[in-house]
Design goal:
homohexamer; 267 residues; alpha/beta; Rossmann fold; 4-stranded parallel sheet; 8 helices; 8% strand
Chain lengths: 267, 267, 267, 267, 267, 267
């Protein structure tokens, strides 16, 4: 039996999974610079790896991750000036979400979970889901009422204070706020745990923008962007932090998906 | 001399102000339920009132506030089920911002500040500004290079820990997170300070949703939404908190606008 | 009891008004130059003031006026070259109207009236309403059938010949046609009656474009635009004309709204 | 030499005409009911026939007329309920105009005239032209600066009072206003003069809606629409009126095009 | 009785035809260079002429042909560099199709056939039809279920090998593939048969691009485009080929329309 | 050194590759049923695998493949009724292409190749590229003129007759035309060669729709779609055919990319 990657499944296999009540668990991320030590795929690879772990517990089907996200912004991802950062305009992403979510519903999935890992996608995924709903695309084709759609827009909203402390206790400046936590402790740790083959350990180094204003400015002044693309302390990342964080997130998401969408156990 | 409200100014007056280096300071908010004790205009009235205070110090022109914002979401504003909540689709708001910002630039303003007070507008204002820039609409008509645009997307990003403590020290559950801080301590306090005539004090009461998940679910379960529309503790609001907070915000924004856009002092 | 301004009402108050059969009476205008003697808000302030007078007779709720309208055109508003004129592209306005009208219907209003005061909005308001209808957004949430929407696109279509004569009898060139009647007799008179605080009387002066062709030309030749932004005779405006005209319009609109939408009397 | 119809010309012939300074004269109309006696093509056939007459005097090239226009409205064209009325949404028409005008400029025409004959297209043609201009599509490919675009939005704006009197002197109710002058005296007369083969004379009859309000209402009440689709007095139409009117319009348009765009005489 | 051209019919005539079960047979083409010997209208004139022949056998109504199609591409139509080629962007054409097809259904036609003659329109017509269906615009107004829509995207898909041999047997290079068969044997022959008045016989000449790659390149290299706009052998065209081909196509389309949509015989 | 997959590279690595003249080689496909024996990813996996082989010879960077393509159509891919088929609307795909191609150019790539493997994407990729060009997004950021974009829309256009004969010589019905060659000889052979782990050999079986009309019909009659999703003879597929075909395509594409874009050899 192939799965849980939809791209490796045939249509009768997807059909059977959807009929069995599997959740379509779709990762949405970005292709965005993450410093000299992390690949451009961090924002779509992390949710994909987490999804694969969730798939060991719950019956889910994983559609092809959305590798392109909304415009990278200077204060939270370095912005558009880094080669390799490849973004969509907001309207494009909204339409992608509207279409894909609607098509998953048309394919027979009775519940869908969207797992986001890119701050610049906030509000756009919700919009895409709402547009699909308004168009009638989230009604079950079997007449069984609305398809349920779960949106996990910011995973870190699920973190407790204790967990935050563990993550940032040895950081010289403490928790820098989520926007600046880019290519830094959390993401580097997670990549060390989930895809160590893609981390250039020898290139891990701290960096930060000269200033971190609470506002954006266009055109972007150079002092608002760190030259390396690392926006805070990457050097305090560790495999241990990554493993614990990954386990924690998988637990939380598994519990939340079970609670909200009630899928069968993994086959 | 009329001003700083653009709606009360004539075109030669706007022309003179723009030539003098005034900043166009535009409020973007929402028309959204804020419980039984606050009016629907909280999200566009607060930034407007703050702008009027800033106008006492800096030379700014205040275009008509954008009263309609992006879709209210259940976990941060109660969502679309409350009568009176009147929202725009995301694409609509993006285009409004693109057009208005571009027109202010065409009108001769060399710097523009966008002051947002609605979480659901996050990322959309940035998109609108970028679309205007890409279309060439943010080039100064006098050939003087790009118009500078400042986006204040989340004012509370400017708050220090001490200030947060002051605000939430007497709240039974402490700081509930910004999404849930809707029609609660911060906004009620500010309205008590800025527009007390619009606060129904006798109706101030705490409320909260039965559950506060870290994810959204469509269709929205009733337990995700507080029946009154108040998502946390409104009863701990006070005029004193509001005054201190308003003063603090006005100070911060005045300093930030001066730093980033360098307008003349108020005429 | 607050009202009729929706921005000053709470959601339970709006809910009660909608249930009681109140009409949502929405002004749509523009932010457009009106010469050196009138403010940029003429096109959204006049319908708002008229609405407030109607609200003394009929039970209406007044949502935040739409201050930005479609592109000002040279022959009817001076066009885009005047600082302060701040317009939306046509598609933007259409979507704003589609969304707002649909949201008012979703909020429980069983009837909506759209009051326009900007010639360049013609056909766009109708399009927005039709798009909302096509999307199913104008069905009553209580299943009671379609929400009724009244569009008052050109108020002056309601004027009789006698009334036109009164307005223009002492004008040297007579009635110049509605497009050229911009910042001239009608609008200056109405502002003198409705918002005299915003009229710079000492700056009232006649003007007109060197030529008034029956066609538009792009790029706009300078002789098609009056330098002051006044397109005809403003000097023949008077408080008396304004009062009579305002009274007449309020009477006509009150009668028409009653006839078409049958709201209760003002509470 | 073929011409002036672009559809009958080859590309080298169009090239030669554009280089010689010919004006691209494009008709935009509608496919809309015009009662039982006139064909659905009235609104695109009349401007086409007028263009052919202009082409005897001025060097013009006539691109394929735009047969589909914006939504027919009940008070000015009977609305969407008549079989055969085939309309575009506003946004569609705007984009058609943007593209076609831009392409004519790209093809080498240094001046373009758009001749409209459908009230519901008002403002949309202007928007399409402006969008083309903003996109840079109205710059001459030879670097010679902006292409000139003339928009004749309402031909009847060119009529004098004397001419109006001639047209409507024997009408029982006089001039009913342009919106109601649909399939009535003016259009029937013009068709009798320009395309008598398409007029069903035996079916010419007066009609009118039971009421003619100054506002639109959705859903449209039946009494707002004349059952036949004729909105005023068609029986007072005559070949003589049509001939005189056609001659007058051709004279006016020829003079205006000459004045504004200065094309060579017809080849 | 007027017909089958909808532009010559009145609304009651269209109504009667639709009620009688007539098919709306709509031609979609392009305005695109076809060398020095053929007019720009080839792509919308050929399907129109074929439709008129079909109308002698089946009861069809022919709406105004869509004269503007999607962007001409260098390898299949010479591309945008030829004066007179007047194209729409893809999104524009999709919306035109969505609107027109939906309006024909609203007008009472129970079946619609779309006849395309422009390779660059491929997939866009299908999209337009699907968008109309998704919007609910292809439901019969009488509640009789879905309107049937037939899309004839590439007529030559109906040709047999024998027919291909007849067409290209005397061509020096044989069948060059359909994209290159532009303004060449097939189209020139058909025009010689259908509209010989529009063929400049003395200008018929072979041409071809210097290279015919299997890929497109932007910017287009000059060697990818034939200078004359003729992409293959036009000189082997003949009236006989055109007559036979036209007869064959009309037979095939008549049979296919009968089979799929079952209209009455021509009245 | 990581590569050629952009998702595994860091931003400095992409920067270096782009500066060295590497081509961005982007696969665009679909997620579409391919019968019971092939996975849903065939249309994006095949071009990705081919790209990886090309990367052994030429210096290319491979951005994340576009896994979602335009609507599957019944006659060429089975259409939307198969679970797992997950399509985008045409406008969505066009915008994705516009954005991604523009971003690759902004990232410093001086040449881009788009490799398509989904018939329903035809014309849409070209549109996306043109929109990026029109918006100025295909100008090199270093001022070096236009970025070159190669579009390989239909790879099989590069096949010779001899190669077609080899592929289809033992097929009972011969070559069925490319639309019907879905999940059949060509694609099954290629998957057997490129990704044998994903082919369910025991489920390979021939199928075909009961009829194969040359036109589309909406709603789709069941006899137009093969129940299994295989539209022709899959059983004649073989590893040998797949290997030969893959080698041939890689040779052709390598040669074509070299010729058109002239990248360095693989590093």
């Amino acid at each position: 039996m192939h799965g849980p990657l939809m791209s490796e499944m045939t249509w009768p296999e997807v059909d059977a999974a959807a009929r069995a009540g599997a959740v379509a668990l779709w990762s949405v991320g970005a292709t965005e610079q993450h410093g000299p030590h992390l690949p451009l795929s961090v924002d779509h690879l992390i949710p994909l790896e987490l999804s694969l772990r969730i798939a060991r517990r719950l019956h889910v089907v994983i559609p092809p991750p959305q590798a392109f996200g909304n415009r990278s912004r200077p204060l939270s991802g370095g912005g558009p000036s880094f080669p390799g950062t490849t973004s969509l305009r907001a309207g494009t992403l909204v339409q992608v979400v509207r279409d894909v979510v609607g098509q998953l519903a048309a394919g027979g999935f009775r519940s869908i979970a969207v797992l986001n890992w890119h701050g610049e996608n906030v509000n756009l995924l919700h919009e895409g889901i709402e547009l699909a709903r308004e168009a009638g695309d989230l009604e079950r084709p079997d007449g069984g009422g609305p398809v349920r759609v779960m949106l996990i827009e910011r995973v870190f909203n699920a973190f407790s204070e204790a967990e935050m402390a563990f993550l940032f206790e040895d950081a010289r400046e403490g928790f820098p706020g989520w926007p600046a936590e880019h290519a830094a402790i959390m993401e580097t740790s997670l990549m060390l745990a989930l895809r160590p083959d893609l981390v250039r350990r020898e290139l891990i180094a701290d960096d930060r923008a000269a200033v971190r204003p609470f506002y954006d400015l266009t055109p972007t002044p150079p002092e608002h962007v760190a030259a390396s693309g690392v926006l805070a302390e990457a050097s305090r990342a560790s495999v241990a932090k990554g493993e614990r964080l990954a386990a924690l997130i998988v637990d939380r998401l598994t519990a939340a998906i079970s609670e909200a969408l009630d899928p069968p156990a993994a086959p």
